[in-house]
Each structure stands twice: as C-alpha cells, then as structure tokens.
Design brief:
Helix content: 40-55%
CATH class of the largest domain: Alpha Beta
Number of strands: 4
Distance between the termini: 38 Å
CATH architecture of the largest domain: 3-Layer(aba) Sandwich
Shape: elongated
Strand order of the largest sheet: 2-1-3-4
Number of helices: 7
Order of helices and strands: HHHHEHHEEEH
CATH topology of the largest domain: Glutaredoxin
Length: 163
C-alpha cells in the first residue's frame, strides 16, 4: 500500500495530464524511487490511480528496462549487449563483472549492492563496450576500469555524471 503523501503527489501529477494514462511511466518511476522496485501491491495501487487495469500497467512495466518488477541492488549495472558492444567485447565485460561480483545476469549480490542486467543499446556505441549504472554511463570498458568503478561504489563514494 502506497503512503498517503505519495498518493497525493501522484494524484497531483496525474491531474495535470490530458489523459491519466500518459503519466503511467512517471507514476511507476515515482513509486520505484521510494521503494526501489514496483511490487505487485504498488502495481495495483498505481493502476487504480491511473484508471488502468494492473495487467495494462504490467505490460508497460515489462517493456521498459528501467522499471524493476523485483527487488534490485543499490546499484543496477546494465551491460549493453547491442551489436556494436557485442563486437567490441560485451561478453568479456559481462563475464568479468559476473566473476568479480559472484553473480550471473539477473541476480543481485549477497550484500545487496549490485544487480547485473544485460540491456539492449544504451547509445554509447562510440565507446563500446559500455554499461550504465544508475543512469551513469561508462564506456571503453576494461577490467581495470570496471574494478575502479565497482570499488568506488562499494565504498559509497560520490556517484554522478558520465565517464
């Protein structure tokens, strides 16, 4: 069940739209920002606010890579598997991160810090292979660069901008 304060904020957001449905993604992002992912209960609440069925909202949620339907780590690592990244060593990057964190794609590390996901094109083709971590993009990846980034995150260092 969503907190009353969040419901009020979402209703205000929705009221400014020509059609409530056009705010569906924004509503899911707001909820996810608060609880880290879109639980089944949150989907039902959000669908009610939007005048949609939970199934209609689920169809949208599963289409977008940035809506999480299960709990994820503090840092979500999305390794690009587009054609260019694939040609430039995407699999080596994915394997290296998997080995380093002791998880396979789709899993979250035991400490809850990292979730590893493959994702189609992130638009960083000129710096392939590339990954996105919580909206921050990293390209021209090497094991050393990956280690630096993961070490920085594990130490909870400042984390903003692109690299």
């Amino acid at each position: 069940m969503l907190p009353d304060e969040l419901k009020l904020k979402l209703r205000e957001m929705i009221s400014g739209a020509e059609s409530p449905r056009e705010k569906a993604i924004d509503v899911m992002f707001e909820i996810q920002e608060l609880q880290g992912w879109m639980s089944d209960e949150a989907m039902v609440d959000a669908a009610g606010l939007l005048g949609m069925s939970p199934l209609e909202l689920e169809e949208l949620a599963t289409f977008y890579d940035y809506i999480y339907r299960s709990p994820v780590g503090k840092y979500v690592i999305k390794v690009c598997d587009s054609t260019v990244c694939w040609l430039e060593g995407h699999q080596r990057v994915l394997d290296y991160i998997s080995s380093r964190l002791g998880i396979t794609p789709g899993e979250t590390s035991a400490d809850g810090l990292f979730t590893l996901l493959p994702v189609c094109c992130i638009g960083y083709c000129d710096r392939a292979p590339a990954m996105v971590i919580n909206k921050r993009v990293f390209g021209s990846l090497t094991p050393e660069k990956i280690d630096r980034v993961l070490d920085q995150l594990a130490q909870n260092a400042d984390f903003s901008g692109s690299e």
